[in-house]
Amino acid sequence: MASPLLEFLAREHPAFVHVPLGLVIALPLAMLMSFRPRHPHAWKITSLYIAAIACLGSLLAMVSGLIWGRQISLIAPDGFMPHVATSKQVLQRMLQLHELAALVGVVLGAFCTFLIWRSLREDRVAADVDPHHRRAIDRGVGIPALAVALLWVGSWGISGKLGGILVFGNEETNRAAAEADAAKRADTEAELPIRALDYASLEPATEAPVRSVQHSNRWVRVWVTASGIDAYKAGKQLPPGAYAVMSTYEDVKGKPGFEPGPLYFRETKSDGTPYVAFYWPRVPEAKRSETGGEDAVYLRSPDPKVQACMDCHKKQ
Ligand code: HEC
Is the same domain home to 223 and 243? Predict the structure, then answer.
């Protein structure tokens, strides 16, 4: 976001919203005053101004909220609503409701403004027909307009309440944040496949490297946890909690010997779900066509790029 004005607009969203909110709370009071015999016309005009400024202010608040949501990546750069993929995304769900309630308020607000304006116009028409005919003027803005104004306050009340939670948090959002934090901390392999790197501590399933057509014709050697080696040798599925690592080696062109290739990892998680990982920390320049140009690769479930591993391994 280059423009400092937009930056300011976005960051101050929690402050801006109070302008239309304050006006819309004052609006029903001004409207009520128009039902009294004293200065009904003046109170109608006051109500019209309050309602119109509240509508304009809400547009500013909505634009600033949208920019803010996009800046902090709760909303996609070209989107208008957050995308809710799982029920764990408490913040996104709340933001959706927050936006919907704000939008309903704006629609009600525009309608309410229109009703007040129409009531003022009726006064003028009535006065033109009969200058002494005061009934239309004395009637106030009308009960429907007042009811719509109260609904307007209600929907913005809901939107404001949710907005407050989004900014300051409540039990549910704080718990969701704590859970996400704990999950991140518990994920010790987010940066490095630590268990795969320690493959030499496992049981070797083959005596020496063999060529594997399925894995880019590399020399491979398989290592399995003690808990899974018997099942592996019997050609059975790995039991829950067991994993296998395939270390790989490649011929050095024109020289005797090998250089290390990528590590392949396959696990049956303790809940029975399959998990795979692929780690290639240094991709030689000549092989970067295999990795889409990347010079280092660490992929793991549920990344869609490891779907090919899953598909083939399911068949075995
Ligand atoms: C075309 C099928 C195919 C694909 C694709 C494939 N594999 Fe394999 N994989 C095999 C077969 C077959 C074996 C058995 C050993 C061998 O013949 O190399 C194996 C062996 C393994 C092993 C050794 C443990 C075991 O179960 O035998 C691991 C770990 C592994 N693959 C991980 C992966 C990962 C990670 C990927 C994706 C990056 C992948 N594989 C892609 C077919 C495949």
Answer: yes
Q: Say if residue 8 is in the same domain as residue 141.
A: yes
Same-domain check for residues 180 and 208: no
Chain CA centroid to CA 313, Å: 33
Residue-wise pLDDT tens digits, 119-135: 999 888 877 777 666 55
25 shares its domain with 159: yes
- The verdict on the CB of residue 297 being under 6 Å from ligand 1 is no
Cβ of 220 closer than 6 Å to ligand 1, yes or no, is yes
pTM for the full model? 0.55
- The total of other beta-carbon atoms located within 10 Å of residue 44's CB is 24
Structural domain boundaries enclosing 205: 194-315
Sequence letter at residue 316: Q
Q: What share of the chain is helix, strand, coil (3-state, %, to 5)?
A: 60, 15, 30
pLDDT digits (tens, 9 = 90+) for 38-76: 888 899 999 999 999 999 999 999 999 999 999 888 888
Q: Are 98 and 159 in contact (CB under 8 A)?
A: yes
Which residue has its alpha carbon closest to ligand 1 atom 24? Answer: 244
73, 177, 184 from 83: Cα distances, Å: 11, 17, 21
**Rounded Cα gap, residues 9 and 180, in angstroms:** 29
What's the structural domain count of the chain? 2
d(CA 12, CA 61): 9
- How far is the first Cα of the chain from the last one, in angstroms, to the nearest whole number? 50
The answer to whether residues 83 and 38 touch, using CB atoms and an 8 Å cutoff, is no
